[in-house]
């Protein structure tokens, strides 16, 4: 019975680096969203079929992890709050863990667009996420998505018992991970 932490927020907000720090502190496994995206997109591009395969691949991993003796999985996700399909997806993956007796924690990160544009070019991000190495493309995608979708929740929108929202514009990943650990009493 493993737990699930859904670590969500806009692109380049720091989900992966916070997830790495949190994994180190808690012993949970990090499953960042680009682990599956970067396995499929280089072959098929960014198509509907790519997302179908990515989501199927993730679902299989979630099902296996939920039944395992892992302490937990930290999953990073860009959640478009204006899209019902994203709400449904989060409910679906949450149910996979809850049905096995696991708990689901929701951690929302937010940072200024200016800071996210800086982070989008970071060496660590580019090393870990091959599809982000085309800086012009990824910067345009980041800006376009920020205009066309709502990537952070509204006040009170997420009625979850295990939820925290953190503005990490000026925080280091270790500080954010420590705050998450303190809020949820992870050890």
What can you tell me about this protein's structure?
This protein is of the alpha/beta class and 187 residues long. The protein has one domain: 3-Layer(aba) Sandwich (Rossmann fold). Helix content is 52%, strand content 14%. A five-stranded parallel sheet has the order 2-3-1-4-5, with helices on both faces. The longest helix has 20 residues, at 48-67. The radius of gyration is 16 Å and the shape is globular. The two termini are 16 Å apart. InterPro entries: P-loop_NTPase. This is Shikimate kinase.
Helix content: 40-55%
Q: Name the overall outline.
A: globular
Strand content: 5-15%
Largest sheet: 5 strands, parallel
The protein's oligomeric status is: single chain
User: Judging by the overall fold, what is the CATH architecture?
Assistant: 3-Layer(aba) Sandwich
Q: Any idea what the CATH superfamily is called?
A: P-loop containing nucleotide triphosphate hydrolases
Helix and strand composition category:
alpha/beta
Tally of strands: 5
Organism: Shouchella lehensis G1
Protein name: Shikimate kinase
InterPro entries: P-loop_NTPase
